[in-house]
Design goal:
Layout (H helix, E strand, L loop, with lengths): L1 H4 L3 H27 L4 H9 L1 E6 L2 E6 H27 L5 H25 L17 H11 L5 H25 L6 H19 L5 H18 L4 H8 L10 H16 L11 H17 L2 H25 L12 H28 L11 H10 L4 H11 L4 H27 L11
Antiparallel strand pairs: 1-2
Helix pairs in contact: 2-6, 2-13, 4-7, 4-10, 4-13, 5-7, 5-14, 6-7, 6-17, 8-9, 9-10, 11-12, 14-15, 14-17, 15-17, 16-17
Length: 437
């Protein structure tokens, strides 16, 4: 269809993330049922089983859960880094005018939840959980908008995606600064040196997938051992991937024409099997295509489906299995605090700051978006599943009672926010949009 051909990368992104959100819901339900079934022991045993490898002088064994949270989530963060870089260079965040509207929403959705957590929380042992309600789960949020179909304008989906990406970027910084362990300076310096080499190559327009994989694995391991969370390595590696290579369009087209002419003028072209010349020219075509294509866009395209349809659902399956009927004493105050931060903090923070910025003429809101759209999507932004659970697992890694309490708060808060936001937007479906004054 013509509509599919003219969709921007960000609009295609929303389609992928919408279905990913549905898989995320399914994985979450399965995890909850499994963890609370007669087979709950197998759920715990599976994710705690140690997996790894060893050879002379080196050994690396970790529970399967940590391989998911440290390695698979590093790939997830790598793709987030690619998306952030693309959006800032050529996408929906590449100008000040495009950036300000979602930036204001993101700031409101981050600041008030943190303030509420600090004010409401009275337990010093749970104070580290202040970052849990900061981020929005893009996949879940867009899945909800997908259920509404054409009842919500594309401008609202783009706004939600853009400010969720900004949220993720802020969450990455928070993890790096506040949720990492004691830093081993020597290992971190070596990792930074390797990253500097990749950045220099990217600056020169030089790109090698083999070099990226080998150096990336080394950087990931060094971050793991340095005390900084290895998922940060994923984002920093993504920023080293160049948008374009040194081959320009004119050179590429000239080479394509030469290859085409050589194939057309081949005297053996009537033979049903490829001739030696044709095989050579096809190899040349593949080489030139590899040299010309955008490394950043190519990697994002290749990895996005793996992240959306495999890594995120596996993360949910491994982390969402909270045992509801447990002997561990849950912290009801923490549960309520997180619910309030996600439902009230997100909605009021986003809505109030956007309307204030609009009054002060700092931002321009698209005409297709009205007041109810803003209020509805601000509640949907309270769906903080993936990143919220991830931050909770870092904040309360050694306190299972607080981690389980945080997960329950995230699940209830996210579900409540989703339902409120959905019904607000659904009730707005038949109303003619009025620009926000």
């Amino acid at each position: 269809m013509l509509a599919n051909k003219i969709l921007t990368p960000l609009q295609k992104f929303t389609k992928i993330e919408s279905f990913s959100g549905i898989l995320l819901i399914i994985a979450t339900v399965i995890a909850l049922i499994w963890a609370n079934s007669p087979f709950s022991d197998s759920y715990v045993a599976l994710w705690n089983s140690k997996v790894g490898f060893s050879f002379t002088g080196f050994e690396l064994y970790k529970p399967l859960l940590l391989w998911i949270n440290d390695l698979l989530m590093a790939i997830f963060f790598f793709v987030i880094g690619l998306e952030i870089k693309r959006e800032f260079l050529i996408g929906e965040l590449n100008t000040t005018k495009k950036l300000v509207f979602p930036l204001v929403g993101a700031l409101g959705g981050m600041i008030l939840p943190v303030v509420l957590f600090v004010v409401i929380n009275q337990n010093p042992e749970t104070a580290k959980g202040w970052g849990i309600a900061m981020a929005t789960d893009i996949a879940f949020a867009l899945a909800i908008l997908k259920l509404l179909g054409d009842k919500v304008p594309m401008a609202l989906k783009i706004f939600l995606t853009a400010f969720a990406i900004i949220d993720d970027m802020a969450a990455v910084l928070v993890i790096a600064i506040f949720y990492s362990g004691n830093i081993e300076i020597v290992m971190l310096v070596i990792a930074v040196g390797l990253l500097a080499i990749l950045y220099f190559l990217a600056y020169k327009g030089v790109y090698s997938k083999f070099v990226l994989i080998v150096v990336g694995a080394m950087v990931w391991f060094l971050f793991l051992k340095s005390g900084l969370h290895p998922t940060i390595a994923g984002v920093l590696l993504a920023f080293s991937v160049p948008l374009r290579q040194n081959i320009n369009t004119t050179t590429f087209v000239t080479s394509l024409n030469a290859i085409l002419n050589n194939i057309k003028n081949n005297p053996e072209k009537s033979i049903p099997v490829l001739s030696k010349i044709q095989i050579q020219e096809i190899d040349n075509l593949e080489d030139w295509t590899t040299k010309y294509q955008s490394p950043l866009q190519h990697l994002e395209h290749r990895l996005h489906n793996w992240v959306a349809y495999f890594i995120i659902p596996v993360f949910a399956l491994a982390n969402a299995g909270v045992v509801l009927n447990t002997e561990i004493s849950l912290d009801q105050a923490l549960i309520i605090t997180i619910i309030i931060c996600l439902v009230v903090g997100k909605s009021i923070g986003i809505t109030s700051l956007i309307f204030l910025a609009k009054r002060l003429r700092w931002i321009a809101i698209p005409k297709a978006i009205n007041m109810r759209h803003i209020v509805g999507v601000s509640f949907i932004a309270g769906v903080g599943f993936t990143m919220s659970i991830f931050i909770a697992s870092l904040a309360f890694a050694s306190r299972p009672e607080y981690l389980d309490s945080a997960k329950i708060g995230i699940l209830i808060g996210s579900l409540t926010s989703a339902l409120i936001g959905y019904f607000i937007l659904a009730s707005n479906s038949n109303k003619k949009p009025h620009p926000i004054k």
